[in-house]
Each structure stands twice: as C-alpha cells, then as structure tokens.
C-alpha cells in the first residue's frame, strides 16, 4: 500500500541513480545518456495511483504538494524519455566542420566565443544554427507530449500547471520586476552600444548573439585570472569564511577536460549531502572563476544540507533557492574588493565595468525569456512561438536573436522565473551580509557560519521564507537596481 515513507525511500533511490547518470554523461565520461531503465524501474513514483494519492492530500499535507510537483515532473519526463535520449544523444554526436576539422557541437561554442574574427564567429554560429534547426522537430514533439500529459491531469495549460505546483504567479513576478527594464535601459543601451562597437566592431542594432558572447568573454582580462590560481584563490576565500575543503570529503570537483564534456557547468547532488559533484569544462581566465564559483555556491548548499531532512527537502523544492547561493558566490568575481584580495590587485577597472554590464544584460535577457515563456505556455502555440521569442528578446536586449532558437533557448518548468527570483533575492542576501559583517563580509568567519545556518535548510524553504530569514518581508526590486546603476 502506498504511503509517504515508502514514497520517500523511492524518491531518494531514484534521484541518486538519475543524477549520477546525468553527471556521467554531461561530464563526458559516458557517451550515451541512458535514463529509460531508471524511469522504468521507478514507475510507482509517477503512476496514476501515486499522483492521485498525492493530489488528494495537497490541502492537508504540505509535503504532498512538493511530492506532487515531483511526481508530475517525473511523469512528464517518463513520457518524453525516449525523445529526450534521442535529442541529447544526437546533439552529443553532432559535429561542425571548420577549416576542414570536425568540431563537436558543444566544443564549437567555446571556439566561437573565443574568436576575435567576426567572419569566423559567424561561420561557426550559422553551422550551429543548422544543427539547432534539425533538432527543432524533436523539440516540438517533446513539447506536444508535455502539453498532452498536463491536459490529462486536468490543467488548463503548462503555465497554469506550474503556477499551481510551484505556488508562484509568474505573471505577477514579471509585472513586479519589469521596472528593472525601465530603470536600467539608459545605462544598458549606452554601455552595450559603446562596448560592442569597440570590442566586436558592430553596432547594437546589427549585433548577433555570438557578438555578445565574444564581448562578455573578455579574453583580454584572462591574464589576471591564470588557471593555476583558480583553486588556490577559492580555497583561500573559503578559509577566510571558515570553510576548509579538507573537512568536506563529500565534495568532488571535476575540472577535467574531455572531448564530449558539456561546456555548461553544473552541480550534481548525487547523494545529499554525502556525494556532491561540481562539474565544469575549463576554458581559461575569468570565466573559469565565475562559473566555478557559481557551482561552488550550489555545491556548498547541498553539502551542508541537514541529514535529518526528509528526501523531499533534500532533493527538490523551490528551484530558485540554490541559485541565490550560486549567484552570491559567482558575483564575488565581479567585486573589486574580493578580486583584489584573493586574485590580483592589477585587474583594471574596465573588467568590472564589463561584468556589471553583463549582469544587467543577462537579467534583461531573462526578463524577455520569461515574457516569451509565459505567452508560449499559455497559448501552447508552438508554430507561432518563434515570433514571440524574437520580439521579446529584441525588446529587452536590443540583440537580434534568431527565431530558430526559440525552442533550444528555453528551460522547462519556468526556470527563467527561478533565475530571476534568485538574482533579485541574491541582492537582498548580499545587502544583509554587508550590514552584518561589513563590505568585506567574504573575509569574516562569522559570515561563513551565517551562510552554513541558511544552507542547513536544504530545499525545505522557499525564497519568500529565505527573505524573511535574512530580514525582508518581501522582494524589493530596487535593491538590485540600485546596486547595478549607482
């Protein structure tokens, strides 16, 4: 007979197997992603009996809402698993030919991002888009199947399902943070047009995504962030806040270069808190520092999660919560005080100007993505989605995003909204840390103790509860806006 304890045991076992498979594949240690058998072995987690059992208890048992969101997510993932495997494996095996040499699709982004020749970048970009276009038929099939599952369980559309299960009104979130666009527009457009003309030799009206990638790559600053300083700088910083790596045998940092390794850094919490992987494909320079620090925030969050928590509070919850800690660490690499203390005193001011502009750009871009995803998933019109995507991204960034990217440039479950909630909340957390421990909070052991107390909550609390823990009744967009435009 189904009960919560049995369900919790299965959650833990399933999560560990699935996360390990994802880690091995996307870290380049396993060529083929094989998730079908894992889903087949745990059908009880997402069959109709389990889903109906959880739906009946949603109002009386708070844990059931989290479990229901997890189960429906699994049901959707199970229904699309063959298509997902096919898509991921085709992408992993895809190559583009540059100067007679075959370059794996994932590696081609790094090549494109690093090229100072716009003609060469554009060639790589166009060939990458050819692969994206080929994959769109599969992506459409995946989303049509997702929409079918959501309808089967009585939801009006994918948007409504996520609003109910995540208890987040994404339209209200968009309305609240839209002020960011107005308040940052002048600083953004002036800075972007000036720098993209200078670095990428193109004006903002004609700029393409690869121009932006090259601009923010900032290769000229790499010399201040040598590879041999990456881990020593991180360890020194952590020691300053009272965190010693040797005390964390549960943390495994994977910086190995492998041909098929996905360049998108990630943290894989295989067994929380006992086996946590930080995976990253090093490309050299300041990006290594930023991306590794981002994933370090996730890693320490999961590695410090209380063992006493039930599985649903260790493995899943508010998708934006862990991102708050990831952004907190990531943006230290944009903080002049942190960089001078732990990396180099010679980094020029131009670097910090670029990083601030990049943060404004990425938040504006994600506000556009959220607008697009809300409209797409309310109407569920996949055939017209490209137009909404193109207009939304152009409106918030001024950059010409190709319509063919409209399905590739989208995460499921409104993760764009999760990122945005995290960006704005991270500004609140940083503000609190500065108030409590000073502008150089990252040198205070008490700050590390404070963070570890927050990390113990694991995935138990939502961002709104975190805000109250750190002294705020609600999210205030002006805190982030002031931090970026002053």
Explain this structure to me?
This protein is mostly helical and 486 residues long. The protein is built from 22 helices and 5 strands. The strands form 2 sheets. A 3-stranded mixed β-sheet has the order 3-5-4. Strands 1-2 form a two-stranded antiparallel ribbon. A hairpin with a 2-residue loop joins strand 1 (95-98) and strand 2. The longest helix is centred in the N-terminal third of the chain and has 35 residues, at 118-152. The protein starts with a helix and ends with a helix.
Question: Spatial order of the strands in the main sheet?
Answer: 3-5-4
Percent of residues in helices: 55-70%
The count of strands amounts to 5
User: What does the main sheet amount to?
Assistant: 3 strands, mixed
Number of helices: 22
Q: For the residues shown, what is the average pLDDT?
A: 94
